[in-house]
Structures are given as structure tokens and as C-alpha cells.
Amino acid sequence: MPAAKVFHLKNPEERTMKFKFTARTAVMLGAGLALAVPLALNSREGHLLFGRYRIFYDSQTVKCLPQYTWYLVDTGNRRMERNALYSFKAKSLGIYPDGTNLIKVLKGLPGDEVKIFHQQVFINGMPAATGFPLAIESGINPEIFEKSYVIAPHRYFMLGEHFRSFDSRYWGTADETQIVGRAYPLF
């Protein structure tokens, strides 16, 4: 469950260093963002933007998307597609403050049927996730998560790829108002 960190620019030296690193990275990756999209410092939110793009960093030791640490998020792309990555803002998740940027895989769309039974998560009858290790480690009986429902309009079921991901199997669906944009793993 990447709790994506947005660049927090504290002083002019740090701004210059991160600006140069990010711009070079974009060019090296062939994205062409440094040339095609004007760069801007969003002082109100305190992170570096490439027009509608943001670069997020996952600093967690155990990542819900284990193979990646850096992500490009397209805030202009909110067309929701199954199995694509999306960044969204945490809301009432308990362990993350509201507004924390998270990145997960969209597994369930509005109208899909979710069944959670015997520590198995099924979406439209297909296996989507197994187990509730975080609940068990916390002394919580996983049976309390057992339920069956249809995903409501404008809601999305988000999962991580790591078995220890804190995701929709624990907290339910994310609302479309929480969606930041489509996320693309960089490295």
C-alpha cells in the first residue's frame, strides 16, 4: 500500500536539487515532460508538478506494489480501468491521516459483486486476494470482514499486490472524489 510521498520542498537548495533531479529523470525516462510540459512549483500544496503530472515516492519498507518506488501520476486521467494503478487520497482509514496519497490497483468497479468469505476475496466470482494478515497480527478475527455486496456507483475496490497490503478488503471502497489520477510506475 504505497503511502506515496509528494515532494515537500522546504528550502531553496532542496527545491533546486529536487527540480534538477526530477527534470533529468523525466528526460532520461524518455517521457519528454521537461520539454513538452511547463514545470511549476505548487507552493500551496508544497510539491513539484509537471503541468498535470506529479511524481510520487513510496518510502515504505514493505510496499503493496513491491517492485516500484517512484510513480508518475496523471491528474488529468481519471478514466477508471480495471487492473490499472491509481493514486487516491486516504479518507477515514485510521492508520493514515486523511489526505495521505496512496497508490493501489483498481480491481472492482461500480456494479461488480464483491464476496469476502473464508479469508478469500472474490470480485465477480474471480479470486482477487487471499488472507487478512494485518488483522490476524493485530488479534482481530478475520471473520468480521466477511460480507457480500455490489460496489455502489462512483466507488472503487482498490488492492495492493503484496499480501500485507492495507487495502479495500479491510476498509471498503474508495469514492471517486478521492481519486487523484492514474499512476504509472517508473522504477
Overview of the molecule:
- Strand 8 and strand 9 form a beta hairpin.
- The protein is built from 4 helices and 14 strands.
- By secondary structure, the protein is α+β, with helices and mostly antiparallel strands.
- The protein has a single domain, classed as Umud Fragment, subunit A.
The coarse overall form would be: globular
N-to-C series of helices and strands: EHHEEEEEEEEEHEEHEE
Task: Give the class from helix and strand content and strand pairing.
Answer: alpha+beta
How is the main sheet built? 6 strands, antiparallel, barrel
Q: Give the spatial strand order of the biggest sheet.
A: 1-4-5-14-6-7
CATH topology: Umud Fragment, subunit A
Percent in helix? 10-25%
CATH architecture heading: Ribbon
Domains, number: 1
Q: Determine the mean pLDDT.
A: 80
Relevant terms:
187 residues, alpha+beta, Umud Fragment, subunit A, 6-stranded antiparallel beta barrel, globular
What's the arrangement of secondary structure elements?
Elements: E1 3-6, H1 12-28, H2 33-36, E2 39-42, E3 47-50, E4 53-58, E5 70-74, E6 85-89, E7 101-108, E8 113-117, E9 120-123, E10 126-130, H3 133-137, E11 147-150, E12 155-159, H4 168-171, E13 174-175, E14 179-185
Antiparallel strand pairs: 1-4, 1-7, 2-3, 3-4, 4-5, 5-14, 6-7, 6-14, 7-12, 8-9, 8-11, 9-10, 12-13
Describe this structure in a few short sentences.
With about 190 residues, the protein is of the alpha+beta class.
